[in-house]
Design goal:
mainly alpha; Annexin V, domain 1; single chain; 3 domains; about 0% strand; about 325 residues
Length: about 325
């Protein structure tokens, strides 16, 4: 905000859609800031920047080496390919700025494999919402294809990118782009509406029961909140309203309820117990919606590095 509109706009053009959304929300929420606060922030930023150099930056080998050292080869592959293949893409990246309904209208008549590739490039919540606008008969098939997608040839990806860029106006590498996969499929299904999620998973199980089980194992569901450490639960509770928590806990098992009560003050816990006991029967759809809202908050906090969540004993997600 201190840069001025023109300079700030140039910086934000280089950011991802979700980064722009988060920063924009912070800017909109900002109220009075003193000159001392501004000077302190700018001084801190200036000191950090002075320590930075361009040494070793700008080469594919360097990026690949650093990420593999930091994350291990398996984890790094997908991220590396998205960076190295996606930096010149315009069509696929531009989709991230579109409304899910508009994306669905654009791809609904494409081959399901093309749809699977496109959705694999979007964020899970955007993919899930887009999937919801596609015909029901397609949804299980597309998730099945995403889960079994092992790679896309660069030439095919480039051609798809060009087609999308043309529609929206509208890299060279030695291996396939690591898009899709079971984790991507699980993340998308996780973000879907509960009723659609059940239909999709049933459809996948009818085709490949083993694959359906593997997807389920990687999904982070409401009961998995019990695996978050106490500090993480406390952080999460600060993001959730009492009304939503009461609804969500109506469908929770005893272990998770105990975990929640354990991480509240004695008075807050007693009030929550009273609310749970005094609340009569509620619709299952309302409970599922409340649980989805809490899960979404948990994922946001995990992405921000404020909590750590585990998915049914799988590798830690941060």
């Amino acid at each position: 905000m201190s840069l001025g509109e023109e300079a700030a706009a140039q910086v934000m053009r280089l950011m991802e859609p979700k980064e722009v959304q988060r920063i924009g929300a912070a800017m909109a929420a900002m109220e009075r800031v003193t000159r001392t606060d501004i000077n302190t922030v700018l001084q801190d930023f200036s000191e950090v920047v002075k320590e930075q150099t361009a040494l070793g930056i700008g080469t594919d080998d360097y990026v690949r080496s650093v990420l593999e050292s930091a994350l291990g080869k398996d984890k790094a592959d997908g991220i590396i390919d998205r960076i190295l293949l996606g930096r010149n893409s315009k069509g696929l990246e531009a989709l991230k700025w579109l409304d899910p309904r508009a994306i669905a209208d654009m791809i609904r008549h494409e081959h399901p494999q093309i749809v699977a590739i496109v959705l694999s490039h979007l964020e899970p919540d955007q993919s899930a919402e887009t999937l919801g606008f596609l015909p029901d008969r397609m949804q299980s098939d597309i998730i099945l294809r995403i889960a079994t997608l092992e790679g896309v040839q660069p030439s095919a990806l480039q051609e798809l990118d060009q087609v999308l860029e043309h529609q929206l106006s509208g890299k060279k590498t030695t291996k396939s782009s690591m898009v899709g996969g079971i984790r991507t499929a699980a993340n998308i299904v996780n973000a879907m509406d509960s009723s659609k999620e059940a239909v999709v998973m049933t459809g996948i199980a009818e085709v490949d029961e083993e694959l359906a089980e593997r997807i389920k194992e990687l999904m982070f569901v409401f009961d998995n909140l019990v695996d978050i450490d106490d500090r993480g639960i406390q952080t999460l509770l600060r993001e959730i309203s009492t009304d939503i928590l009461v609804l969500a806990l109506k469908g929770a098992d005893e272990d998770l309820q105990d975990k929640i009560f354990k991480n509240m003050s004695k008075r807050a816990g007693e009030m929550l117990r009273d609310d749970l006991e005094s609340t009569g029967p509620v619709r299952l759809s309302d409970v599922e919606t409340a649980q989805k809202e809490i899960l979404a908050a948990a994922r946001r906090l995990a992405e921000a590095g404020e909590i750590v969540i585990d998915s049914k004993g799988s590798e830690t997600l941060v």
